[in-house]
Write a structure and sequence with these properties.
Elements lengths: L7 E2 L15 E5 L2 E5 L11 E4 L13 E5 L6 H10 L5 E5 L3 H5 L1 H19 L9 E6 H12 L7 E5 L16 E6 L1 H13 L8 E5 L11 H5 L7 E9 L2 E3 L4 E10 L4 E4 L5 E3 L3 E4 L4 E4 L6 E7 L6 E8 L2
């Protein structure tokens, strides 16, 4: 594998002097190559780690690339665990961006566009197109930066957002060819689904959601979703259930749980923003996913429904006096 700049060191080497610390340097380990002081005029001094899809080099085949914002060499065990379980091998690039650097989205986008992506696609056997390039980020700054990168459709069409922040809901537009996966808390995911649908994106085709917080960004990289053919990620059906199935008129709440199944059989969480109810005896709190009895309700079986066509879903709950 060729390198634009190649200076080899081993982990057992002596500590470098101050003058040497500013020199670009590559550290080689099985399954990992770490570029210290990556040559950049936009973000000088960055450490970039290339987690390889196989332990030994040269690499065979060509690979999609996942850029993990904030990943460092110490994440090697997590990256290796991901490589060991995924059937979809990829080159994973970790960049030790700080929250302050990620907040300067325009600068980081220039770094990716002019320096990092050209270096990666020149020096590694990648599938060098936006449909095989993803970014994974966590939290507010990372999520906003991932959004900024998605606004560059020639660079990225895929992203993973872990623990997305409500600040992401301000997006007024996103390209129609993206595949966005978000893992986090129900209130934010519920609002995020409503917002993405409002800007014209479609569940499955453009985004999927999963409740819960992954322990790390490598734990849930959704390679199967990103790399599946378009027809396999179309929304096939939505199912809903209410717990408990009976609710007293005197008070209490029930919880609505909905899931979305894609054409390839994979199941994700679904958060309807509006429900149809007959008779209309319940109030629906979409962020919390709760149903509560309204004043004046009478004993009845309330039919709950939503969606249309093949994705229509139905469930019911019985209201009783006690």
């Amino acid at each position: 594998m060729k390198k634009l700049l190649f200076l080899l060191a081993v982990l057992t080497a002596p500590v470098w002097c101050a003058a040497q610390e500013t020199e670009p340097l590559i550290l080689l380990n099985p399954g990992r190559e770490t570029f210290i002081n990556f040559p950049s005029q936009t973000l000088p001094g960055k450490t970039v780690t290339f987690f390889l899809p196989q332990q030994a080099t040269p690499l065979t085949g060509r690979y999609p690339v996942v850029y993990v914002l904030g990943a460092i060499p110490k994440n090697a065990p997590l990256a290796q665990a991901f490589m060991d379980v995924t059937p979809h091998k990829a080159l994973v690039v970790g960049i030790n961006l700080t929250p302050e650097e990620m907040a300067d989205a325009a600068r980081v986008v220039r770094f990716f566009k002019r320096e990092l992506i050209p270096y990666v696609d020149t020096n590694y056997p990648t599938l060098a197109d936006a449909s095989h390039r993803a970014v994974a980020a966590q939290g507010t700054e990372g999520g906003l930066l991932a959004y900024a990168l998605l606004y560059q459709p020639e660079l990225f069409t895929q992203a993973l957002l872990a623990e997305p922040d409500p600040a992401l809901l301000n997006a007024s537009y996103l390209p129609k060819n993206i595949r966005l996966a978000a893992w986090g808390d129900r209130p934010v995911l519920s609002a995020l689904q409503a917002r993405l649908e409002n800007v014209g994106l479609t569940y499955g085709t453009n985004f999927v959601l999963r409740e819960g917080e992954p322990a790390n960004l490598f734990e849930e990289l959704p390679m199967a979703y990103w790399l599946a053919p378009a027809q396999q990620v179309a929304l096939r059906r939505v199912r809903a259930a209410v717990t408990p199935a009976r609710l007293a008129l005197s008070g209490g709440v029930a919880h609505l749980q909905a899931t979305a199944q894609l054409a390839n059989g994979r199941v994700y969480d679904f958060y309807p923003s509006v429900l149809r109810m007959s008779p209309p005896y319940l109030d629906y709190n979409a962020p919390a996913g709760t149903l509560s009895v309204i004043s004046g309700a009478e004993p009845a079986t309330v039919k709950i429904s939503g969606g249309a066509g093949k994705t229509a879903y139905r469930t019911k709950i019985k209201l009783k006096k006690q």
